[in-house]
Amino acid sequence: MNTFNDIEQRANFLKELIQKASARALEGYLNRAAGVYDLKGHQDFLTETDLAVESLIRNEIAHHFPDDAILGEEGGGTPGPATWVIDPIDGTANFARGIPHFCVIVCFCLDGEAQLAAIAQPVSQERYFAQRGRGVTKNDQPISVATTPDMTQAHVELGWSTRIPTQAYLAAQETLLSQGASIRRGGSGGLALAWVAEGRTDAYLEPSMNSWDCIAGMLMVEEAGGQVGTWPNRLSHLLETGPVLACAPTIAKQVQQVNFPNLTLKDPS
After folding, report:
1. Which of 175, 195, 216, 258 holds its CA 20 to 30 A away from the CA of 54?
2. Which residue segment(s) compose the domain that 233 sits in?
3. Does one domain contain both 135 and 169?
4. Gap between the Cα atoms of 114 and 111, Å rounded
């Protein structure tokens, strides 16, 4: 299935799909009832819009590519050789609380490796798109990572997970602060990675992420000239959690000093 025409067909489809999904997410955001959401777990939010956006995406994929597998945050799924990975609302806690910092993520993978990636910020109308070997764009304009020379000038986003002991998170903060970095947390790992790809921030780290949160953004960082960690890189990883690192190459060695388990940089060659 990995012929050029097959990928191009899906690329064109994805560009249209992400716009439809983004519009549905924005509709849900503007018409949401304040404070109405469910919790799937500790600090794990779910809204009606999560379900509606994922349903829209699934239906479109099933109609156009019925043989492709689908893995979604809300609906699950079983990955296959050709798999679409979906996070309908990344940053649901922000969405539910009326904070306009969230995104829709859709990624197409072959044997667990991202080939196409789309991230849309519905409120700001920013759309990111990447194709392996073909670069990455924001609203159809090429983007690239920052050239920040060292950590004393770096702006780093650090994600948080209930799956990791608090002490490990605090130790990571201490390492970054001792290097001179400024640290932030926005609450959307997908947008954080897109921001690294366009040079808004210099690095993103999180000790444990799901594939649907990060695999699209990591392709974008790679295509923008950045460096990323080795996870996820195979089919089985799509159903697992793992550590995420994405950064400008100029600060990669310093960022890698954060001691998250199994966190290693991918060989850029």
Report:
1. 195
2. 151-255
3. no
4. 9
126/138 Cα distance (integer angstroms): 7
CB 232 within 8 A of CB 112: yes
Check residue 238 and report its DSSP letter. G
Element at 197 (helix H, strand E): helix 189-197
Question: Same domain, yes or no, for 161 and 242?
Answer: yes
Distances (CA, A) of 97 to 26, 43, 47: 14, 12, 11
pLDDT in tens, the chain (269 residues): 556 569 999 999 999 999 999 999 999 999 877 665 654 444 344 578 989 999 999 999 999 999 999 999 988 999 999 999 999 999 998 998 889 999 999 999 999 999 999 999 999 999 999 999 999 999 999 999 999 999 999 999 999 888 888 888 899 999 999 999 999 999 999 999 999 999 999 999 999 999 999 999 999 999 999 999 999 989 999 999 999 999 999 999 999 999 888 888 888 76
Q: Is residue 109 assigned to a domain?
A: yes
* Tally of domains within the chain: 2
Write 132-140 long-range contacts (CB < 8 A, 24+).
132/219, 132/223, 133/223, 134/223, 135/223, 135/224, 136/197, 136/219, 136/220, 136/223, 136/224, 138/194, 138/198
Domain finish residue from 83, 115, 139: 139
